[in-house]
């Protein structure tokens, strides 16, 4: 069962951090802005509105005390393996980077969804994302499985291959 109760996470030196909650369609424009500012693969603004409407149960946003969106994780259940949540994108605002918000977003996603596993794809040159998902495995005491998934030739233009990260997060 997914909860929509906001939770707050302690930040550095015991300060309260952002509130974590499920996104809504009205969060879509801010999610799109943050994705673009973060240099993520660009999707249409409509995609973020749709994600807030139809994938709120498998996504989380971080909102600061002023109500501004400062981070998000977008996920969906894998149709052939509904106990697995695939993470599509993770972003935090530049001002909030280095505070562990992305890791807390993933932890909140796992808690909210009750997922047994989290999957994501990461390009070989994206060391910060690889570290984020390896950290999730470490926090759960699990080995992260990294396997090639999509070759470069599947993508138009200049796009690296994608490696699947699979992190078992449930209790066996």
TrEMBL record:
Record field: compositional bias (Low complexity): 1-25
Q: Which SUPFAM superfamilies match?
A: Acyl-CoA N-acyltransferases (Nat)
Which CDD domains does the record cross-reference, listed alphabetically? Answer: NAT_SF (cd04301)
Give the EC number. 2.3.1.178
Region Disordered, annotated ranges: 1-26
TM annotation in the entry: none
Keywords attached to this entry: Acyltransferase, Transferase
Pfam families per the UniProt record, alphabetical: Acetyltransf_1 (PF00583)
Main EC class the enzyme belongs to: transferase
Among PROSITE patterns, the record links this protein to: GNAT
Question: What family is this?
Answer: Belongs to the acetyltransferase family. EctA subfamily.
PANTHER family assigned: N-ACETYLTRANSFERASE, UPF0039 PROTEIN C11D3.02C
Q: What is this protein called?
A: L-2,4-diaminobutyric acid acetyltransferase
Q: Which organism is it from?
A: Iamia majanohamensis
What phylogenetic lineage does the species belong to?
Bacteria, Bacillati, Actinomycetota, Acidimicrobiia, Acidimicrobiales
